[in-house]
Amino acid sequence: AQTVTQSQPEMSVQEAETVTLSCTYDTSENNYYLFWYKQPPSRQMILVIRQEAYKQQNATENRFSVNFQKAAKSFSLKISDSQLGDTAMYFCAFMSYSTDKLIFGTGTRLQVFP
Amino acid sequence: NAGVTQTPKFQVLKTGQSMTLQCAQDMNHEYMSWYRQDPGMGLRLIHYSVGAGITDQGEVPNGYNVSRSTTEDFPLRLLSAAPSQTSVYFCASRLGQALAQETQYFGPGTRLLVL
Prior knowledge:
The structure holds two protein chains of two kinds.
Chain A: E1 3-5, E2 10-14, E3 19-21, E4 24-26, E5 32-39, E6 46-52, E7 60-61, E8 64-69, E9 74-79, E10 88-96, E11 102-104, E12 108-113
Parallel strand pairs in A: 2-12
Antiparallel strand pairs in A: 1-4, 3-9, 5-6, 5-10, 7-8, 8-9, 10-11, 10-12
Chain B: E1 4-7, E2 10-13, E3 19-25, E4 31-37, E5 43-51, E6 54-57, E7 64-66, E8 76-78, E9 87-94, E10 105-106, E11 110-114
Parallel strand pairs in B: 2-11
Antiparallel strand pairs in B: 1-3, 3-8, 4-5, 4-9, 5-6, 7-8, 9-10, 9-11
């Protein structure tokens, strides 16, 4: 069975600083996607960044970047220059080509302080 | 483009009542799915559909029914509500199953309280 683990239930960071959220996953598949979703207090699920497993280059989206370590099955999210608007729950998610189902971790609550 | 819409936003039910959560998308997406979100458990897949007329079970399907008569709509039915079904429900859609069609778009959620 495929699983996604987020071992940090809560994290905090000061505005303008950098924070890294951890995510590990377990799969025997070789072809899959990984995602980070943000859920602010509005509850809307917002895609932050995605990574295809066949790509060695780490994905980046403005202040958001990932450290994808396929052999270690690790997919961490780095937020640079943190902003107050980054305060939210962050979910790591996995989807393999074969099962085609999105599997979520339990989330990390990030608080950005002024 | 309204994206993925869900109604109602909030609903209170009594144990044993039935109701339908509505979900619609106007992006011509083939793939639609329902999740529930509970504290400390992330989002779990209830049912999904890869196209009109086709549905399948996800991780936690018991107590829920779905149908997909059109591409646009994917309603979720609670047959006999139980307090364990108190949750926030999200509908999501994506273009298809092919490569580069994998990004899911989520609706705003329906908060359900079963007394």
